[in-house]
Specification:
The protein is an alpha/beta fold. The chain is built from 19 helices and 14 strands. It has helices at residues 12-24, 35-44, 61-71, 86-94, 107-120, 150-163, 179-188, 210-215, 232-236, 251-263, 289-294, 300-306, 323-338, 347-355, 361-375, 388-395, 412-430, 435-442, 446-457; strands at residues 4-8, 28-32, 49-53, 77-82, 99-103, 123-126, 129-132, 169-172, 197-201, 240-244, 265-267, 274-276, 280-285, 309-312. It is globular, with a radius of gyration of 24 Å.
């Protein structure tokens, strides 16, 4: 049976092109050209996957995502976003998006994501119990890659020390630094390694359903509770519960959580029977919880329950020595997925990787390599397969006039091309590589801007269409 896909995008041309492409690849596709129409269509129909642009005329992607997941918490939503909007992409993942796809859209990349969803989406089994997955791609959470940098060695030393205890742990770090990987590693090294490891992103919990998600419910507990449901605490009983972005929990949920942790027992919503609880809790936050409780945003007593041990995860930009190691790891996995033979990276690519700031950290590095491997037609990953945001680091280091890629004795056509190239690059840097804003400033349409970037950088091939 064909998978049903709903595309929500106010760019009718993109919608139509993407729709035709997916239909040719045996998907059943419908379109909606506004956020509101997309929400209404989703509620009336039954779709396996929603592909939604983040920038819509009437709503943004987060609003559409929240409306869809409120109606169906198990909905699989992919968000289309500009490559430079890494923070936005990470934020929508926290809000419940299954994954994100960056523009310009690459046909094979879209198919790869959809096929991965087919293989791994739906449910994951923990000791015979089913739990909704939170990411579409394998998250490598059970695989720890030990870095060689000083900060990495200290990080892993702390992990090994605390893993053999039953302490509650707070993990601090920017988005994408691998907090779930570290939590999984602590579990794997502990005495609970043969019991469940259950992860929950607290940022996706709605106030109305948080109790049910955490503690489960009995049939008839509220409207829509058509059967008994196990919550995350019950699923993790005997093992480890990982609460990501715990600072997003509402005050009411924090009170319930504190009571359960203190009493070591809980009830399902609407139930009367108390269940004993034997569980280790690891929480993660990208903000300091001590500062949060001082500002009244987080309960101090709950903070002290969690804070038996804390670990600070360094950002990728502070671990430059580790970047080649992580890059090779992600490339090996991607080669297996794509069935390609690629023998590492050009030296220029490694230097660019070390110069880039990586605002999305390890997740961004993984996605850059997946994209580069897909576009690469050589034995090694070269700069031509990298996004403009990264290759521009090299282009911006303008050599002396006699060494510049444009000849000294250029003709008028080449001089104009040089001026245009530099104008585009400078504008992109001013707006943090937001191509829509750059096109507006340059007084050209977005498609023209992408064509010019393609001509100058040669790294945006095989695209469907771009924002």
């Amino acid at each position: 049976m064909k998978q049903r896909i709903l595309i929500i995008d106010d760019d009718c041309e993109l919608c139509s092109l993407l729709s035709r492409f997916l239909i040719r690849n045996d998907y059943d596709v419908e379109e909606a050209n506004s956020g509101q129409k997309g929400i209404e269509k989703f509620k009336k129909g039954k779709y396996d996957i929603v592909i939604c642009d983040f920038k819509l005329g009437d709503k943004d992607g987060t609003e559409v995502l929240q409306a869809i997941t409120a109606f169906d918490p198990n909905a699989v939503v992919l968000i289309i976003t500009g490559y430079s909007d890494v923070k936005t992409a990470v934020d929508v993942i926290k809000c419940g998006a299954y994954d994100y796809i960056t523009k310009p859209l690459v046909p094979d990349e879209i198919l790869n994501v959809l096929r991965t969803i087919t293989k791994t989406a739906a449910k994951a089994v923990h000791n015979g119990k089913k739990v909704q997955k939170s990411t579409s791609q394998p998250n490598d959470a059970s695989i720890l890659i030990e870095g060689i940098s000083k900060r990495s060695k200290e990080l892993y030393r702390q992990v090994e020390i605390v893993a053999h205890t039953d302490y509650s742990v707070i993990l601090y770090g920017e988005s994408g630094t691998g907090k779930e990987v570290i939590a999984q590693t602590i579990h794997n090294l502990s005495g609970r390694k043969n019991d469940p490891f259950i992860a929950l992103d607290c940022g996706t919990l709605s106030r109305e359903l948080s109790g049910s998600e955490l503690f489960g419910h009995v049939k008839g507990a509220f409207t829509g509770a058509l059967s008994d449901k196990e919550g995350h605490f019950e699923l993790a009983n005997g093992g480890t519960l990982f609460l990501d972005e715990v600072g997003n929990l509402s005050y009411e949920v924090q009170v319930s959580l504190l009571r359960v942790i203190q009493e070591r027992k809980f009830k399902r919503v609407g139930g009367n029977n108390e269940m004993p609880l034997d569980i280790r809790i690891i929480v993660a936050s990208n903000e300091n919880l001590q500062d949060a409780y001082k500002k009244g945003k987080f309960r101090e007593d709950l903070y002290h329950r969690f804070n038996e041990f804390s670990i600070q995860l360094p950002p990728l930009r502070a671990r430059q020595e580790d970047i080649p190691l992580f890059a090779e790891f992600f490339l090996d996995k991607t080669k297996s997925e794509l069935g390609k033979t690629i023998h590492g990276f050009d030296d220029e690519v490694i230097q660019l990787f070390k110069s880039y700031s990586w605002p999305g950290n390890l997740r961004e590095l993984k996605n850059v390599i997946r994209r580069a491997a897909l576009l690469s037609d050589s034995q090694k990953i070269t700069a031509h397969s990298l996004p403009f945001e990264i290759t521009s680091l090299s282009a911006n280091k303008t050599p002396a006039p006699e060494q510049h890629e444009f000849k000294r004795d250029v003709d008028l056509k080449n001089a104009a091309a040089k001026a245009e190239y530099e104008a585009i690059l400078n504008t992109l840097m001013q707006v943090n590589f937001n191509k829509s804003k750059a096109a507006e400033i340059l007084n050209i349409d977005r498609k023209t801007l992408y064509n010019k970037i393609r001509n100058y950088e040669g790294n945006l091939t095989n695209t469907v269409i771009s924002n």
